[in-house]
Amino acid sequence: MNLVGNKKWLATSIRTSLLQESVLDVAGDWEQTEDGYSARFYCDQNSPGELNNGDELKGNWVIIDLQAESGDTLSTLVNTSVIFVESNKNPR
Fold first, then answer.
1. Where does residue 83 fall: left (phi above 0), alpha (psi -120 to 50 degrees), or beta otherwise?
2. Is residue 29 part of a domain?
3. 4 and which of 24, 36, 65, 74 could share a cystine (Cβ 3.0–4.6 Å)?
4. Do 63 and 41 meet the contact criterion of CB atoms below 8 Å apart?
5. What confidence tens digit (pLDDT) does each residue in 23-70 have?
6. Is residue 42 a part of any domain in this protein?
7. What is the pLDDT of residue 18?
8. How far apart are CA 92 and CA 86, in angstroms?
9. Cα gap 23→1, rounded to integer Å
10. What is the mean pLDDT of residues 69-74?
């Protein structure tokens, strides 16, 4: 996930079309890039192995609830993007 803004945002809830759930709620999950921040999704927190070793997130869509890291300054969020890998099981 990539964010373009003036500070890190926390993904307090990540839900997929397959009812998987995850989070990115630690400031250390984000790496500063040239124009914002980037983070790799964790796994499904409800699968065996949970966030670190569970099932990879899959599905047709994802809903991500974002919250500014701290509320003491004005937060600007210009753009967000999620990069995905198409499954080999999908017909082409």
1. beta
2. yes
3. 36
4. no
5. 987 767 888 888 888 888 889 999 998 888 999 999 889 999 988 877
6. yes
7. 93
8. 10
9. 12
10. 74
Nearest to 33 by CA among 10, 8, 66: 8
pTM, rounded to two decimals: 0.80
CA distance 87 to 84: 9
Predicted confidence band of residue 90 (pLDDT cuts 50, 70, 90): low
The CA distance from 55 to 45, in Å, is 8
Residue 92 domain flag: no
Q: Which residues, in sequence order, are CB contacts of 3 under 8 Å at separation 6+?
A: 9, 30, 36, 37, 38, 66, 77, 79, 80
